[in-house]
Structures are given as structure tokens and as C-alpha cells.
Amino acid sequence: MTWSEGVRKSTGLLIGAGASYELGLPLVWELTTELKNWLTSEKLRGFNAGWREQGGGHPDEVIEDFASVLERSDLHYEALLGYLETQWRRQRSFAQHYHELYSWLVQMTYHLLYARQINNAGYLARHLPLFDGIKSLTDGGKTLRIFSLNHDVMIEAIAARLGIPLHSGFGPATITLPLRDEAGILKGRLNAAVLDGATIERGTMPFPNPPEPGIYLLKIHGALDVFAFNDGKDLLKLMPDGDGPEGVIAALRAANEDLRYIQPGLPSGRVGALNEIAYADDDGVMQFLRRTLLAGAFKFDVRRSQVLPVRMLEHFRANLNFVDRLICIGYGFGDLHINTALREWLDASAHRSLEIVNPGIREIPSGLLHLAPQITLSQSGAADWFDDEAGIERPQNQIMLKQVSAAMRKLGPVLGQKASAAYLAQRQQSAMDRLIVHLKGLPKVGGKPDLGSIEDAEATVHKLATDLKTTEDEIMAGLLAYLEAELLRRRRRNETDLDPTRPDGPRAGGRWWASDRDSRPYRLHGLDRRHPLRGGRRHRRGEVVDHRPDQG
Fold first, then answer.
1. Is 521 in contact with 412 (CB distance < 8 Å)?
2. Can you spell out the DSSP letters for 323-360?
3. Cα 481 from chain centroid?
4. Per-residue confidence at 257, pLDDT binned at 50, 70, 90?
């Protein structure tokens, strides 16, 4: 036995947007589509007109500059934020205006993600069990370190559902926040764990030491449930407001909707603040919680200011050294500071290994090619990978649930809902047609079915119900077949539109489906632009697979 074979491997996860995709959270381009569908150039100008009426607003030069990049189809939301950051540095006379637009766009991004998180309770409940395999990484008293680049609370929800102890590097100090109704009357309290600025600057976070069983979670890019307070010096993380995943979501909802500072005369009746939550403390004094989402092109750049302390990146680097097997799930290697940390971590020891999990992975990222013997590529989605790791075999209905979800998201939010509604309408019409056929078989009186001719009404109703009854699996299978047929139809239409020999030439420049530019799920090569988590087998290192990596 070699030295490396005798050492117990410590496993960690680095998760990006693709890891939360199967749980209903968007990838970069999906979120960009939602943002641009909501924020058009015309609407931006309208907002500015309204801001000016209230005594604020921005110069036309700034608004038109932002509008020009907003209209570009090749820029996702982080590139838009990066552009505003760049102009903030370049255009010194307009610096404050670009900075305010940047903060406003981050706030809009927060609200889009927040809405996805709290409005998908049913979807989340159905899909969380697909991630039960993560528990195998904590069984036997093991510590699982998870480094998250995401802003959502999916890991918290998974841990709450499975009863896995979760440590986030906050505490033991806590704070209670007063929740108020629309009249400003106290209605409850919300607990939060505190991470004070002095602890952050000391370079250590209060994770249990020696390590305890469970998940050690470090959110590197801020989160929906993490806020700065005390003038930005300290951080707090919301604690669940109840048991299970529902308690995690309830706390997030309470912070955003029931922390208030009531101000009669304002349109909403409460004070609003840019990228902050204004609330009244127990003495009625206005306080602020500052949102911590870190987005754009200059994360952890010392030339830029950011709400999340820069030292958080050092905490990531330090905690990464406790891991010798890192599973990278749903990350597209688009952040230089993360890529550098990964390269240095892997370079430090030949006994460390990196597995990149991505259903579209085809090659090792160029910056890591010199470390190829330590890297494995796995063509798999997050839930499938966890099942593989835990040895879980899913029943057919859960497999179909994943396939239906994948097909729905390939179509995009708008077309997916339309296709689902069309299928259900088709089923209802089919049931109605069968009922009509049954009624036509009855004797006629005055040209109409004679219901009085039914001798045994109970038996007839039972027979009719049996004829019309459909199991959930049958409905799921039918829906999957309908969605796949719709995808095939659109793919063929796309190929026709791209045909240079057609009389009117290829449509829309041959890049996106001309019929579906709002959700644009496919590129020219037919790859799924928005659903990276299709099921698939693992591909060992060195193998070339057929799809391109494409996760946010």
C-alpha cells in the first residue's frame, strides 16, 4: 500500500450555478434573459424619468450608455455589471451615477433570485429528494466542506431536510431582529448568527475545531441570507425560522418582507434603501441590513469596494487546504480568483485530486492542463453524481421527474409552461372526448342521451372513472413524450431556418432560434444553452466527450 492509499481522503465540494439548476435556480443566461425581459432600454428610460420627478435620476449620457450595452445579446448580467464597474472607474465626473446603477442592478438580481427561491416551494419539495445522495459524504462522522459560489439557500435546505448538522462559520454570537406588520406593530422575531469584523480580519472563522460531523459551508460570493450590518463592519446569517427546508425559506421571506421601517406618506408605506433593508430596531431607530451579493467582473479586486469583506477569499484558500479530494460541480471556470486558488491548491500536492462534474464537459480547463494527471472529468449532473457516489438507484417515477424538468428547462420558462399547459389541455380534451363517446352510447330521448336509462348509476360511474383514470406515471410519461416532440420540432425548425439554400436565406443571422429569442435555449450546434444537468455516465480523465461545458 502506498502512502497516499493509506491516508483517508477528505472530500470537499465546490459548487457553481449548475449544482442548483435541478432545484429550480437559473444559470447565468437564464437569469440574464429574465432580467432583460423585465428591464428593457425603454423601461430604463422610464425609470429614470420617474427618479427625476422624485429629485434623483441620472444624466441622459449615462442612461443611454447603459441602454446601449443592455441591448447587446452577447452580454450576460455579470458582464453588464462589470461594464458599469468599469465606467464607474473611467468616467470620474459620472462615477456616482454609474455606482448607483451598479448597486441598483445588483438589487434587481437579488430580487429575481429571491423570487425564484421562495416562489418554487412545490418544485423544491419534489426535487430535494433527488439530492439525498449528498448524505453519503457525511456518513460515518465525516466532515464535508462545501465551498459555494451561489447565492441561494439550497445547501441549507438539503441539510435541513436530511438532518445533517450545518456549520457556516458564523456564531456563536447571535442577534434577534424585530419583525413588524404593515402598521409597524411587533409580530415576531428573527434570529441570525453573527460573524464580527474582528474575527474576519484575524483570518479564522469559528468552524468547530476539531472537526465535527456534518457540513462546513462557506459562501464565497455572498448570499441571499447573509447581510452586512453595523455600518458594514459585521456580517449576519439568517437562522431557520422553523424545521426542515420550510424553515430556511421562511427565514428568508421574513427578512425581506417583515423587517420594516414604517413611514406614512411613502407609496409603499415603508422606507426603501438601495440594496439594503431598512428596519426599525427594538427602540424604533432605523437600522440597515446591506445585501452581500458579489457579482460583476471585479470580485475581490482590491481596486474596487465591495460589501463582502475581501478576506473571505483568504478564508476560502485556507479552508481549501483541509481537503485533498475536491469535487467541482456546476462551475464553468469563469472566475479568475477561484481558478487561481484551485490551481495553487492542486499544484501544492500530487496527492490532491480534482473531479469536474458537468454533463457537457469535454476537456480540462486550459489553466489546469499541466495538472491533468490529477484531474477527472465526469459527464454528469449534480443529482446523478450524488446518486452515483451513494450507490442510489432511483425509481422510474423519479427518473422521469428529472427528465421532464430537463425538457421543460430546455424549452425555457415561457415555452416550457406553454407546452405543459398545451399537453394538459390535450389530456382534458381527450377525457372529454371519451365521456362524449360514452354518453352517445346511451339511448336517446328527444335527440339527447337518456340518463334515466342508466339502471345502476354507481356501477356506471365506477366504470367511467376507471376508463378515464390515469396514473401519475402515465401523465408524466405522456408529458415527457410531448415535451421531447416539441423540442424535436423546434430543433428541426431551427435547422430549416439556418439552411442557406432556403429561398429567403437563413433567418436571424443563423445564431439563435428566430422563433424563441426570449428564452433561446440552443446554440447553432444544438447544445442545450440552459440545461447542463442532463443525466449521463462519468467519463474518466483523458476521455473526450461530445458536449461543451456551459455553466454559469
1. yes
2. -SEEEEES--S--HHHHHHHHHHHHT-TT-EEEEE-TT
3. 26
4. very high
Asked if the peptide bond before residue 172 counts as cis, ω within 30 degrees of 0, the response is: yes
Domain boundaries, given as residue ranges, for the chain: 28-116, 120-311, 398-516
Cell numbers found for residue 477? 410519461
> 330: which 3 cell numbers?
456546476
Residue listed under C-alpha cell 460589501 = 307
Q: What is the mean pLDDT of residues 50-79?
A: 94
On the question of pLDDT at 463 being above 70, the answer is no
Q: At what angle do helices 95-119 and 244-257 cross, to 10 degrees?
A: 140
Cα 293 to Cα 79, 151, 177, 473: the distances in Å are 15, 7, 21, 40
Q: Which amino acid is at 434?
A: R
Show the cell assigned to 216. Answer: 462546513
Residue 153 exposed, middle or buried by CB count within 10 Å (0-12, 13-18, 19+): buried
C-alpha 468/C-alpha 487 separation (Å) is 28
Q: At what angle do helices 28-38 and 95-119 cross, to 10 degrees?
A: 110
Between 38-42, 223-227, 441-445, 504-508, the lowest mean confidence (pLDDT) is in: 504-508
CA 76 – CA 238 distance, rounded (Å):
29
CB neighbour burial string for 516-549, b if at least 16 within 10 angstroms, e if fewer: beebbbbeeeeebbbbbbbbbebbebeeebebeb
Alpha-carbon distances of 84 from 30, 39, 160, 232, 304, rounded to whole Å: 21, 15, 38, 22, 12
361-407 pLDDT per residue, tens: 899 999 999 999 999 999 998 999 999 999 999 888 888 887 887 77
15 dihedral zone (left: phi>0; alpha: psi -120 to 50; beta):
beta
Task: Name the DSSP letter for residue 364.
Answer: -
Give the type of residue at 372.
A
